[in-house]
Amino acid sequence: MGYQLELRHFTYFLAVAEELHFRKAAERLYISQPGLSRQIRQMEEIIGASLFIRNKRNVALTTAGAYLKKELEFVMNHIDFTLKQTKLLDAGGEGEIRVGFLGSAMQSVIPTLLIKVDKEYPSIQFSLEELSNNLQVEAIQKDQLDLGFVRLARVPDGMEMKSVFTDTFSIALPIDHHLNQENFKSIEQVAKENFILFSSDYSSLYYDKIMSICEDKGFTPRVTHKSVHAQTIFKLVESGLGVAIVPTSLQHGFNLGVKFLEVPNIPQRAILSAIWKKDNRNPALEHILRFI
After folding, report:
1. Which InterPro entries match (predicted)?
2. Which positions ≥6 away from 5 have C-beta within 8 Å?
């Protein structure tokens, strides 16, 4: 046949796989739809596998196509990052570290880490993104992140996890709430209040731990609102829509009408852990792990 796979084939395939629509993919690639269809057929012929199921109304990935999409996303991401690292190294730097984190990590761990690293490795660059536990794990598995800060009981095979910070819990209340440092003795005192919690999708371990704090004191909290953002939760508390239980360190950095009281006499703790992939190939990560 004489044809060979080229990088453009992979780019064309991923566009169609993401759009599942040849016209939209062609517009995105700035090529004609017939030309794109021809390139995809050529790719299927070279590989010897059908990648798409086509009919007049729909385009869908075959099992082989879904597998190829997943693997190519990994490969293309790695190529992009490798080229970026190469440029940074050529300029005399030591590369970039991509870090995912939960909001409370920015209050308790990450600033200290960045200061320590900057003193010894000032040319290492950091890319920081706030993400949920599950999204961090997924991104690390796909080599889209090098390091994550999560609240998880365990991680998948092939990943490492190390506890880096243990926090207490505090209750967030409207600033004019009758409870204060002097009269707050137990979480039971807010048993009849509405609760605003981080969504279980954001961190199932954290959500379950909050529920256990209440259930250990003899009640199940009435959860009326959930969010994945601390700012949203605190704004709802400020508005008088309920109370929230959060890691104590999360109280810093917000200028809202909310007060925080540490929850006494409970065994539960909010444990923040660092996670990374065992076979991560980013040489800069080795430097960072010395400080973890």
Report:
1. LysR_HTH_N (IPR000847), LysR_subst-bd (IPR005119), WH-like_DNA-bd_sf (IPR036388), WH_DNA-bd_sf (IPR036390)
2. 43, 46, 47
Least Cα distance to 151 among 273, 267, 269 occurs for 273
Beta-carbon neighbour count of residue 149 at 10 Å? 27
Neighbours of 17 (CB within 10 A): 22
Residue 205 is inside which H or E element, if any? helix 204-216
Residue range 18-33: mean pLDDT, rounded: 92
Residues of the chain with pLDDT > 90: what percent?
A: 64
Q: Residue 283: which of 82, 149, 91, 130 has the closest Cα? A: 82
235, 197: one domain: yes
Angle subtended by helix axes 7-19 and 63-90, to nearest 10: 120
Q: How far apart are CA 150 and CA 274, in angstroms?
A: 6
pTM greater than the 0.85 cutoff: no
Same-domain status, 132 and 144: yes
What average pLDDT does the structure give for the chain? 89
Residue with tokens 């009981």: 153
Backbone angles phi, psi at 7, to 5 degrees: -55, -35
pLDDT digits (tens, 9 = 90+) for 150-190: 988 889 999 999 999 999 999 999 999 999 999 999 999 99
Domain count, the chain: 3
Are 276 and 149 within 8 A, CB to CB?
A: no
Cα-only R_g, the chain: 24
Say if residues 170 and 263 touch (Cβ distance below 8 Å).
Answer: yes
Domain membership of residue 2 (yes or no) is no
Report, as an integer, the average pLDDT of 262-279.
Answer: 94
